[in-house]
Amino acid sequence: MNRSDRETLRELAKRYLAISRREVQEERRALWRGHNSFGYGRPLIYTRAFAWHEMPESRCRCGDALARQYEDHFRHALYWDSLNDDSVFEPWVSVEAVHVAPPDRVWGLRTGWIGKEDYRIAKLIDPPMKNHEDMDRLVQPHHEIDEKATQERVEQMQDAVPPGKAGWFLLIDKMTEDKFLAAVQGTEATLVRSNLSHEQEEQLKQAFGTEKHSKD
């Protein structure tokens, strides 16, 4: 990831962070909490999908593959915000862990597609299993993280978009969901790691204002 890539990501992250810190995000969180608790209120609008890759705003400039992945993430979010629906934009970015998997996807069999490579054109599926003998090729799925490769990816993102400043943080997606959800209730934090110590958990709870939303 070169200097130009890092500058591009930092500028996009700065714009995204400004969006995530607007007061309307907390208002939307409250609306969604009420909605998901079967409360009454106005109908909420969530724009789940749009033709992102057909829009000029989707064009990425970064050359590095990892940088392009997160450049696309930020540009997508910035455009999404312009639609002014009730989506909530949080002050973090998830750093995807590097998963160790069988060569041809999770079951060891790759699904093929018949047609042009252009993602915008419909294709026919080439099923991975065409006869009973193909069942012998199945591989038992497993979940394994390449710790070294994941850490390298995190360090690249920490260098490109430094966490710990102005409420920004990186979330490593290999962290267990229950630990994260137990701590997260608010809008700001510094840095989240996958293996939280007791001290880190307390810092995260304090930053996210867990006590504010706790039940009596």
Task: Give an overview of the whole structure.
- The structure is a single chain.
- By secondary structure, the protein is mainly α.
- It has a domain at 1-89.
- 40% of the residues lie in helices and 6% in strands.
- It is built from 7 helices and 4 strands, in the order H-H-H-E-E-E-H-E-H-H-H.
- The strands form 2 sheets. The protein has a two-stranded parallel sheet with strand order 1-4.
- Helix 1 runs parallel beside helix 3 (65-82).
- The radius of gyration is 20 Å and the shape is globular.
Secondary-structure element series: HHHEEEHEHHH
Figure out the total of helices. Answer: 7
Task: Give the overall silhouette.
Answer: globular
Tell me roughly what share of residues is in helical segments.
Answer: 25-40%
Largest sheet: 2 strands, parallel
Instruction: Give the strand content.
Output: 5-15%
Radius of gyration: 20 Å
**What gap, in angstroms, lies between the N and C termini?**
49 Å
- The overall pLDDT average reads 78
In total, the number of strands is 4
Strand arrangement, major sheet: 1-4
Helix/strand-derived class?
mainly alpha
Q: Pick out the low-confidence regions.
A: 175-196, 208-216
Topology:
Blueprint: H1 3-20, H2 23-36, H3 65-82, E1 92-95, E2 112-114, E3 124-126, H4 147-160, E4 169-172, H5 177-183, H6 198-208, H7 210-213
Parallel strand pairs: 1-4
Antiparallel strand pairs: 2-3
Helix pairs in contact: 1-3
